[in-house]
Amino acid sequence: MIGQFEIRKVLPHRFPMLLLDRVTEVVPGQRVTAVKAVTCNEPWYQGLGPDAAAEAYAYPRVLLLESWCQSAGLLATWESPDPDVLEGQVMLFGSVSGVEYHRPVLPGDVLEHRASITRVVDDTVIIEGGSTVAGEPALTVGLAVLAFRPAGELRPQDPAPDPASASDPASAPALA
């Protein structure tokens, strides 16, 4: 079993946005099974009052998908982890399609995410899978596309100085 220490070596996410608790299986280059336990102590439930309806506790769908995507990202980077997003290769999610939500996920539920690589083309990885709670489908992801780019290419570049303004004192900013 792979726990938090190992997950944090692979993914750049940290609390409160690290949405995986452990990895129960990883076959590098093929598939991963990861687990996320949903609890009522998570930050997204803080605003709910004591009289909140049961459906108000449904885990936000965007976070359910994010949690699955983190398992997919872990699979895609397992053999060459680089969690420093300021250097090296940066993992980018290009698209996700064929997403279906099958049931609400509630505090106390344990999500089991499964992701499988279906294709690798150069620096792009295509993954599919889904999530279950106690064997019952909660989420299906038909296709997720991940691309890897050098961090240096993603940083804003300093604009080139305008040669005209350097030699024309009238164009210099006024000092107050």
Tell me the total number of β-strands: 7
| Principal-axis shape | globular
Helix count, DSSP H or I runs of 4 or more residues? 4
Q: How much strand?
A: 25-35%
- How can the largest sheet be summarized? 7 strands, antiparallel
Quaternary structure: single chain
- Work out the radius of gyration: 21 Å
Q: Percent helix among the residues?
A: 10-25%
What are the segments in which pLDDT stays under 50 over at least 5 consecutive residues? Answer: none
Written as H for each helix and E for each strand, in order along the chain, the element string is HEEHEEEEEHH
Which secondary structure elements does this structure contain, and how are they paired or packed?
Elements: H1 4-10, E1 22-27, E2 31-37, H2 61-77, E3 89-97, E4 100-101, E5 110-121, E6 124-133, E7 136-150, H3 151-154, H4 163-167
Antiparallel strand pairs: 1-2, 2-5, 3-7, 4-7, 5-6, 6-7
Keywords:
176 residues; alpha+beta; seven-stranded antiparallel β-sheet; globular
